[in-house]
Amino acid sequence: MLTSKRSKLFAGLVFDAIGMASYLVPGWGELTDVAWAPIAGYLMTKLYPSKTGVAAGVFTAIEEMIPGLDIIPSFTIMWFYSYVIKSKSVDEKDKQVIDVTPE
Description:
Strand content: under 5%
Number of domains: 1
Low-confidence stretches: none
Oligomer: single chain
């Protein structure tokens, strides 16, 4: 689907905005959330095809179905986790020094 960090961030912001748009029309939001929840979960798994992406897809679908939780920007949070938090932990592993001096 999308491969660059920037395009995933932009898509995530758009998908979060769609999820939050249900608040614009009172009463109509809960009906649209029922349709948007499985779509959002599917899109999350396509943007992030990993075990973490599947878990985020399930979380996103549940979050979209529960009234009042649409405010959570799950796509943006997943992008931040994937490209900021997770990449920091990988960098920390790379910085480990292994002592290979003979005894």
